[in-house]
Amino acid sequence: MVGSNNSAGTMTPEEEEEELQKKIGARIKVTAPVKVYHVAKLGEEVDLCGMEGAVKQYVGLWKGKRISANLPFKVEFVVDSATAGGKP
């Protein structure tokens, strides 16, 4: 039957939030070059490609409204500061 599938567009905000909360705690590995420039303890840019981490929070909703975050999950990476920037 046409139009009877339950696609992401037909989910209520509550259902969508519940689905996204299931991803919290998932282990991930970065497979594309992504540089971040706001790492306070390192003070320099960090390339995340090849690093592994855990999903900590979904940040695509703010005060109950959807925001246009292009990377809507906070991920925690454990980085050894001696090897992250190539400095001893």
Describe the SSE topology.
Layout: H1 13-21, E1 27-29, E2 35-36, E3 46-47, E4 52-58, E5 61-62, E6 65-66, E7 73-77, H2 81-84
Antiparallel strand pairs: 1-4, 2-3, 4-7, 5-6
Summary?
With 88 residues, the protein is α+β, with helices and mostly antiparallel strands.
**Taking strands numbered 1, 2, ... along the chain, how are they ordered across the largest sheet?**
1-4-7
Alpha-carbon Rg, integer = 17 Å
Number of discrete domains: 1
Provide the helix percentage.
10-25%
Q: Kindly state the mean pLDDT as a whole number?
A: 78
CATH class: Mainly Beta
Cα-to-Cα separation, first versus last residue: 63 Å
CATH architecture heading? Roll
What form results from the Cα inertia axes? elongated
Main pleated-sheet profile: 3 strands, antiparallel
Low-confidence stretches: 1-6
Q: Helix/strand/pairing class, anyone?
A: alpha+beta
- What sequence of helices (H) and strands (E) makes up the elements? HEEEEEEEH
GO biological process, one term: photosynthesis
Region (Disordered): 1-22
Biased composition (Polar residues): 1-10
Function: Variable subunit of the ferredoxin-thioredoxin reductase (FTR), which catalyzes the two-electron reduction of thioredoxins by the electrons provided by reduced ferredoxin.
For the structure shown, list the relevant keywords:
2 helices, three-stranded antiparallel beta sheet, 26% strand, 88 residues, elongated, two-stranded antiparallel ribbon, alpha+beta, disordered N terminus, SH3 type barrels
